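Sat 14:20. Reprocessing the chain from the morning session after the first attempt stalled halfway. Input below, unchanged.
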Amino acid sequence: MPTISKPIIAPEILAQIQEQFEEEKQVIVHCCFQNNYMVGNLVRIWPSTFLVDKFTGCSSKLIFWENIAVFPYWTEVPPVKEYCFTLIFSALPKECKVFDFVEEVIQGSGFLYTDIERNETDVYTLKLT
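Finished this time. Tokens:
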């Protein structure tokens, strides 16, 4: 039986692959919105929702959402229930240690969650009000 040798990859190619992998990292934010009212409540997310690095001001764009309507549409939240949805953002800067979740809206007030400490997985759960 022939032996199969492991391929040898040049260190500079491995470094380039790692660099591209770092660029493709995304940030996942699981959001839960508590409806404390007896009647249904409406919730939505605006495309102008960002993660903002507290130190540099660099922002990560919203690139995907699940289980939530995007402006101008609404999602109804059942009475006295917690409603959860997921947002995916482009990568935060490598140096980022603390960031804010900011929804910039032109009607009413948007979601704001500040001083989120970055973790190794870039997966977060936020309780929104």
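The chain has a mean pLDDT of 87.
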